[in-house]
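Review session, final week

We close the course with one last complete record, chosen because it touches almost every idea we covered. It is Lipoprotein, a protein from Paenibacillus mangrovi with 360 residues. Go through it on your own first, then we will talk.
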Amino acid sequence: MKKKFGILILTLLMSMTVVLAGCSSKQDPKDAMKSATGNAMKMTSYEMKSKVVIKDLKVSSQDTVDPAATEQVLSMLKNAEVTIDGVYQNDPMQTELTMGINLKGDMSMSFNIPMVMTKEKMYVKIPSIPMLPLPENVVNKYLVLDMKELAQQGGTTFNPDSLDTKKTQQLTNEIMNTLFGEYDGAKYFKDIKVKEANLPEGVDAKQVVQFSVTNENVKEAAEIFVNKALPKILDIVGKDEYRDMLGLTKEDIDKAKSDLNSTNKDELNKGLNELKNNLKINQFNVNTAIDKKDFPSYQNAVMDVEINDPETKDNMKLSMEMTNQYSKINEKQTFKIGIPKDSDVITMEQLQQEMGSASY
């Protein structure tokens, strides 16, 4: 069962990369996706709004130790929403995000976590979370994480490239072009009429491209990813500039390649066949809307899948929707939070001291 889930996750990760795409003109869907990545690299600033909604989640297993507790957790996650509203600029590098978490069910709760990131520091506002009592004098303070100091404490050297958005975009560009090159345009990509794409108000698109995986092509999609695309992606990640940025070593890449090459092909094919038989894709689509300025202004991903293993009796149903919307692309941005003042900041050491001396 673990192997089947692993293959499924790889397939889903592959297809989800499409959400970063845009295109330069209305053209063949696959060509639009391939040309999109280069244009996405030109996004030097923007506002964004993202949302993830878990519409349904059911898991049953013979190995479940406490079915009642599991059911309670699943109840909280059903219809749960995670939102991210943010502003980004490349030069000077500054990002601010507000993550909203809204849990439903018998133990419903909602809270927001504002965050600010610069080239070397991250600030995370400590929220007031129900069921998690925190000292009053730390709530609403910004916990500052200095990347250089954290690296030194860990016995390593801080690599500024790890937060280099431009280099990350370049890596994404190479990976996505590799992925797109391996998949048949007529089978996996198609145009959606703009009027039928259910775009939210304010999104002005000239083309909407859909990438989809179905029951009919999921096995082939997984085979292409594992056997054709993944070896090439490892070569890309293994380049010096990307490997260092990701904090990987040459040994890490070599081991990944060795593990991939040593995989028993018969065992892999058996697993893919079982995946196809046990996996039901009710819907798996990723739509990308391209605006008149040739940028990806809106993405929508819908996933509704079921996995049922007749041998172990393990079953899972997951239905979720993800959206991502960009606006004010390459315009001057306004930061609502800004860089927190020293009086509003608390260090990790201070937080640990406050937590250690607090009495609940």
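Two points worth writing down before the exam:
DSSP finds eleven helices and twelve strands in the chain.
Confidence is low (pLDDT under 50) at residues 1-25.
Good luck, everyone.
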